[in-house]
Design a protein that fits this description.
Elements: H1 2-16, E1 25-27, E2 32-34, E3 37-39, E4 45-48, E5 55-58, E6 61-64, H2 73-89, H3 93-107, H4 112-122, H5 134-146
Helix pairs in contact: 2-3, 3-5, 4-5
């Protein structure tokens, strides 16, 4: 009996203990709206969730940091399309950048002016083991836009 009372008391205390809020939202394939544009990547779902990057891709899922939703339309679509490219082509960052730029140009949401704004936002990216620096990425993205 005492054990049951203690277990209930412990459960009550845990329920009252503040838990960190995890702001995440799962969006089924084909249901994501980015700045009024229905963004889709085949059967891939999207998770809106705070992460230590602007976006990420895992097999069958794109993860967007909530701050992506506050970016200008072309940048929202670029980051989504970049992560979609990883679903198609794998982990190569240059290929994902290039495909996203080409898709943006073809679909009409990435103009030369929007590419310049995107480049300005990426200029200070330091680069890491899997990503070239912002300047290197921008240079390659501009070549992809011209082709």
């Amino acid at each position: 009996m005492l054990r049951n009372i203690l277990a209930c008391a412990a459960a009550s205390l845990l329920a009252l203990t503040p838990q960190p809020a995890v702001a995440q939202r799962l969006i089924l394939p084909g249901a994501l709206l980015l700045a009024g544009y229905r963004a889709t990547c085949g059967p891939v779902d999207t998770m809106i969730q705070p992460i230590n990057d602007i976006a990420a891709a895992y097999k069958g899922r794109i993860i967007l940091h909530p701050r992506v939703l506050d970016l200008p339309r072309a940048q929202q679509l670029f980051w989504y399309t970049h992560e979609c490219a990883h679903q198609i082509f794998g982990p190569g960052e240059a290929a994902a950048d290039c495909w996203a730029v080409q898709q943006g140009k073809i679909q009409g949401w990435l103009s030369r002016e929007e590419l310049t704004k995107l480049a300005d936002s990426m200029q200070q990216f330091p680069g890491d083991d899997t990503h070239a620096s912002g300047g290197e990425r921008i240079s390659y993205m501009e070549k992809c836009f011209r082709n």
